[in-house]
Design a protein that fits this description.
Order of helices and strands: HHHEHHEHHHHHHH
Helix content: 55-70%
Number of helices: 12
CATH architecture of the largest domain: Orthogonal Bundle
Oligomer: single chain
Largest sheet: 2 strands, antiparallel
Strand content: under 5%
CATH class of the largest domain: Mainly Alpha
Structural class: mainly alpha
CATH topology of the largest domain: MetI-like fold
Shape: elongated
Length: 355
């Protein structure tokens, strides 16, 4: 991390974060009672009827003064492209950070479990295993009946919160069953590594865009729903990196010494393995942000993902399909996506050179 001052991507991300944070102030309707005059006097959904039908940045524009000029042109409805770019940066930033946080937590947790415990370290009592198999149909039935997947008015976070509660309840029942059969010596090994690895392979085998479209059909168009959709497929690469690094670290001499000193598995993972394995994982997270931005733009291009009233770089590019002569509708958001993705990949050099 010593050379962060020489990495232009750091400064780009600081600028991107500032634009995303202050987007409602930078681009807003100047007729509103604002303490600070906005840089761009147009909101993301504001329509200038005098400059509709995709006015180019270089064409004559019917505006009151140069302050009201559309510096990057307008779309077919008369919305300011620069304002939509600014608000679209906020959309990309929120979704990129949200996906990295959720996918990172899931990927590091599952990859850590798979790499550290393997297939032979975790055992279930025989009655626990039988109960897990018998209760599994009840668990899936409860998921399909209790959670209102087909109701679009219910928020995505609400749906997945119910899914999380049902999953925890299922695991808690198995834990309590195990507590009631403490005298039973019949045990079955739980191949965690195989289960998690096969799950990753199954998700990776499904065409990505097809999977995202299917998932978007059961979530409400929103920031939260888009984050959950993308994170549900983005965690697999992070889990693979984490698993590989932990497999490399867990057989080192210092780990054997920690076990000899009676450190618990949780202490070994938290204090010894994860700090040494997180370098390559952070590289994967930076690539994951770039992938999240591209996937969000792809969903918006297809008319899915975030709500229709929210600005997005992908929506701007999609609007160019109706007017092929409006090159500015594709060039400017395309450049924004390209620079942001390159900056995310460039940021990974900080973590590669960490040690």
């Amino acid at each position: 991390m010593k050379n962060w001052k020489k990495n232009w991507a750091v400064y780009y991300f600081l600028l991107w974060a500032a634009i995303a944070l202050f987007a409602p102030i930078l681009a807003n309707n100047s007729s509103q009672n604002l303490l600070i005059k906005p840089l761009i006097p147009y909101s993301q959904s504001g329509i200038d009827y005098n400059n509709s039908n995709s006015v180019s940045p270089f064409e004559y524009q019917q505006v009151k003064s140069i302050y009201y000029r559309h510096w990057l042109g307008t779309d077919k409805l008369g919305r300011d492209v620069l304002s939509q770019l600014i608000h679209g940066s906020r959309t990309a930033f929120i979704i990129g950070i949200g996906v990295v946080l959720i996918a990172g937590l899931i990927g590091i947790f599952l990859g850590g479990i798979a790499g550290y415990f393997g297939d032979n370290s975790v055992t279930l009592k025989k009655r626990q295993f039988i109960a897990a198999i018998l209760l599994l149909p009840i668990y899936f039935v409860s998921i399909t009946t209790v959670i209102p997947w087909n109701i679009s008015s219910v928020g995505s976070f609400h749906k997945f919160a119910l899914l999380f509660i049902l999953s925890i309840t299922y695991l808690l029942i198995l834990f309590l069953i195990g507590k009631t059969v403490q005298q039973s010596k019949a045990k079955i090994q739980l191949p965690l590594d195989m289960i998690i690895s096969r799950t990753i392979e199954l998700i990776d085998a499904i065409p990505l865009l097809f999977l995202l479209v299917c998932l978007s059909a059961i979530t409400k168009p929103s920031f939260g729903g888009t984050i959950i959709i993308i994170a549900s497929v983005a965690w697999t690469s992070i889990a693979k990196y984490t698993r590989g690094e932990i497999l490399k670290e867990k057989n080192e001499n210092y780990i054997q010494s920690a076990r000899a000193l009676a450190f618990t598995d949780f202490q070994i993972l938290r204090k010894h393995i994860l700090p040494n394995a997180l370098g390559p994982v952070l590289v994967s997270l930076s690539f994951g942000m770039a992938a999240a931005i591209l996937l969000e733009a792809s969903l918006s291009f297809l008319g899915m993902g975030i709500a229709s009233e929210e600005a997005s770089w992908g929506k701007l590019i999609a609007s160019a399909r109706n007017d092929y002569q409006a090159w500015w509708l594709a060039i400017f958001p395309g450049l924004a996506i390209f620079i942001t993705v390159v900056a995310s990949n460039k940021l990974s050099e900080l973590f590669q050179n960490k040690n």
